Amino acid sequence: MSAERTYDFIPCDDTDPWIESAAASAEVRHFARESLRWQAQEIIDEVLRGTVPGEELSRARLRRCVAQNPGKPERALLQQLMLNRDPQAESPQ
User: Fold this and answer.
1) Using a CB cutoff of 8 Å and minimum separation of 24, what contacts does 76-84 make?
2) How far is CA 50 from the centre of its chain?
3) Selected residue with higher pLDDT from 43 and 86
4) For 34, what's the count of Cα atoms within 13 Å in the CB-facing half-sphere?
5) What is the pLDDT of residue 66?
6) Residue scoring higher pLDDT (1 or 20)
7) CB atoms within 10 A of CB 44
8) C-alpha to C-alpha distance for 81 and 2, rounded to whole angstroms
9) How far is Cα 64 from Cα 16, in angstroms, rounded to an integer?
10) CA angle 40, 52, 1 (to 5 degrees)
11) Which stretches of the chain are DSSP H helices?
């Protein structure tokens, strides 16, 4: 499913149709947030569908991040990426 099919108000012909009005800018910001949220959820779903045994720890961390950020997959994914960058960040020292 593409973002264009999900959001009917996105113009495809015009190069910069939303620069003219502030109301359209709000629509663009809303679209950007929802698009990011949708993309993050797609990435999370794909990772959690994985079955490689060596990646189970990453999937468990991602599940925990999703549980800690209900309804905000973009924040859950960011948290997961930060944990993967620094695996010691989640364990007490």
Assistant:
1) 76/40, 76/44, 77/40, 77/43, 77/44, 84/58
2) 18
3) 43
4) 12
5) 95
6) 20
7) 20
8) 24
9) 40
10) 30
11) 3-6, 22-48, 56-68, 73-85
Q: Smallest Cα–Cα separation from 34: which of 61, 77, 74, 66?
A: 74
Cα–Cα distance list, 90 to 4, 5, 49, 70, 87 (Å) = 38, 39, 23, 19, 7
CB 41 within 8 A of CB 71: no
pTM comes to 0.64
10 Å Cβ neighbour count for 16?
Answer: 7
Tokens of 93: 């020292």
Biggest alpha carbon distance in the chain?
55
Which two three-digit tokens encode residue 10?
Answer: 């996105």
Condensed to tens digits (0 to 9), the pLDDT of residues 8-55 reads: 444 445 445 445 555 557 788 788 888 999 999 999 999 999 999 999
DSSP assignment of 64-80, as one string? HHHHHSTT-HHHHHHHH
In one-letter notation, the amino acid at residue 3 is A
- The confidence score (pLDDT) of residue 21 equals 53
